[in-house]
Specification:
The complex is a heterodimer of chains A (72) and B (483). Chain A has 72 residues and is α+β, with helices and mostly antiparallel strands. Chain A is built from two helices and six strands, in the order ββαβββαβ. In chain A, strands 1-6-2-3-4-5 form a six-stranded antiparallel beta sheet. Classes of the chains: A alpha+beta (72), B mainly alpha (483).
């Protein structure tokens, strides 16, 4: 399991866990479809993280990318 | 009919338990949700539902059932529930959707890559701001269109109104209320229609275009890092850019920001350092012949935006804002949709400002008639002189208290008469830009941020605006800069 913030651009995997105690953050991520079991692809790291989860594309900052863990 | 979605065992167990507990409550027959739905919402700790249901004596049992399910799972309940739903949706999609293997990347996808890649994205961003905002709104809207409509007013409408008023109305003060230098039609309506309307129309047209194309979320993600430095996140890019159109509307839109802290910083920066389209349009129009003046004005306002943002981010308690945003596909906007949106926004804006401009004319008329106006201007004159400005600049600041674009429009009039030097024009433009946007924005701010915060912001802004003007004037003199 590896944090999205440490993944190289272009790599993909499956969302394994969302490591945060903050339920608000959890709900927001899941409302965008970022939930365990979903296929995830890291498209870009700078100036913001851009990911594709399922068919949704989303932008995140580094703090958010540290919360999302994926299984390669 | 689709079969019911089955959740992991601990959750199904809890649902069954909650359903039986809920059956004891006296829910009305036509309650819109099934017991299963209510149970699921309770498990997800929906705060509104907790309040709405009169749970009372069963509360302890309900909480126990939820805690029991929670202890059996190794992840939060909301994650487990969302996961089950997500996987089901994903599975359904797999069975019904077949994808043709695409040979080449679609155009929208390639454009997306260009707009978010740092090497191409930042140049594209600058080009959009330069051509879309500066050239189209600033030069075409505030320059060409304002000149045309203004000339039309001066040539065809004002003389007719003045003559008609002189013939029909027997009393000079009454003539002045409608016509002449400060009349409702010749000043208030002329400012609104000839100076403000074209600028606002072109801005809203461009903003609606960017909105419908899906570019705005990309602008947000490109600028997130920069905005983090001033205590905001990429999410705040949209209200701030909208503020370049109308600060009142933008203050309302700060609602979309996540934390109170972020809303506060955004409101403060909008009030201080983001000129609305009517205002910067007029200022750009005035300073356009002198690139150095435009550069100093832009530099000072930009620096104040960054510095005050940076300092308020350091001084305000609370956590920095986080950023996450869904990125929709880029689309080619439909002209009809853009026109409808532009029209609706202009209507809102125009109905908002026209009464204010008319009131401003009436207040000026009243103030001049009673001599009150003269007194206030005498009070402001020392400040104007202190800033190295001519006496005639004092009324502009008084107009600026009503609306800063009204003040800017006044500045436009005086520039036409050739009263100001380049330096004086820059100093006046800076002070006016830093002023509070307008009464409407003040009202929205009171409603959204509360009285305490609002008056604190107001008490900071006016002295600060004059102070910055004083500094800039001094600095220009010391450095011997003559624009």
């Amino acid at each position: 399991m590896i944090a999205l913030a440490s993944v190289k651009r272009g790599n993909s995997g499956t969302v394994a866990a969302l490591k945060t105690k903050d339920e608000m953050t959890l709900q927001k991520l899941m409302a965008m479809g970022i939930s365990p079991g979903m296929p995830i692809l890291l498209e870009q790291r700078f100036p913001s993280y851009i990911i594709k989860v399922g068919r949704t594309r989303a932008a995140l900052d580094r703090e958010m990318a540290k919360i999302i863990y994926l299984q390669r | 009919m689709l079969s019911q979605l089955a959740y992991p065992e601990p959750i199904e167990g809890a649902i069954a338990k909650l359903e039986s507990l809920l059956s004891r409550l006296s829910l009305s027959q036509d309650y819109p949700l099934s017991r299963r739905s209510i149970a699921l919402l309770l498990l997800q700790k929906d705060p509104a539902l907790w309040q709405q249901l009169q749970i009372q004596e069963t509360e302890a049992e309900i909480k126990a059932a939820i805690a029991d399910a929670e202890s059996q799972l190794d992840e939060p309940l909301i994650t487990a529930i969302a996961k089950a739903r997500q996987q089901r949706a994903w599975a359904i999609e797999q069975t019904v959707l077949s994808e043709s293997s695409q040979g080449k990347t679609p155009l929208a996808e390639r454009l997306h890559q260009l707009t978010v890649n740092p090497w191409t994205g930042f140049p594209i961003l600058l080009a959009i701001l330069y051509y879309g905002i500066y050239k189209f709104v600033g030069e075409f809207g505030a320059g060409t269109m304002v000149d045309t409509i203004e000339t039309f007013f001066e040539t065809y409408i004002n003389p007719v109104v003045n003559q008609t008023a002189a013939v029909i109305l027997p009393w000079q003060p009454l003539q002045d209320l409608i016509a002449n230098d400060y009349g409702i039609i010749t000043l208030g309506i002329r400012y609104a229609v000839a100076i403000v309307l074209p600028v606002v129309a072109t801005f809203f047209f461009m903003f609606s275009f960017l909105e419908d194309s899906g570019y705005l979320p990309r602008l947000s993600l490109m600028l997130d890092n920069l905005f983090k430095a001033i205590g905001l996140s990429g999410r705040a890019v949209i209200p701030i850019v909208l503020g370049l159109g109308c600060d009142t509307m933008a203050t309302l839109v700060t609602r979309t920001l996540e934390t109170t802290r972020e809303r506060l910083i955004a409101t403060f920066l909008l009030s201080l350092a983001i000129p609305c389209a009517a205002q910067w349009g007029v200022i750009v129009g005035l300073l356009a012949q002198k690139p150095a003046a435009l550069l100093i004005w832009g530099g000072v306002i930009g620096a104040i935006f960054m510095i005050t943002g940076y300092l308020s981010a350091r001084m305000l308690p609370g956590n920095p804002a986080s950023f996450y945003m869904e990125i929709p596909p880029l689309r080619f906007p439909k002209l009809q949709n853009i026109l409808v949106k532009t029209y609706l926004r202009m209507k809102w804006y125009f109905l908002e400002i026209l009464p204010l401009f008319i009131w401003a004319s009436v207040i000026i008329w009243f103030g001049r008639l009673t001599g009150l106006f003269g007194w206030i201007i005498q009070g402001i004159e020392p400040i104007a002189l202190g800033l190295g400005l001519p006496r005639e600049a004092a009324p502009i600041f008084l107009y600026g208290f009503f609306r800063r674009d009204y003040g800017a429009a006044g500045l436009f009039d005086m520039q036409q008469e050739g009263i100001f030097t380049g330096n004086q024009l820059v100093v006046t433009a800076i002070v006016l830009t830093l002023f509070l946007p307008c009464i409407a924005q003040l009202q929205v701010m009171l409603k959204e941020r509360g009285a305490k915060v609002t008056w604190a912001i107001v008490a900071f802004i006016f002295p600060f605006a004059f102070f910055v003007g004083y500094l800039v004037n001094g600095l220009l003199n010391v450095l011997g800069v003559v624009i």
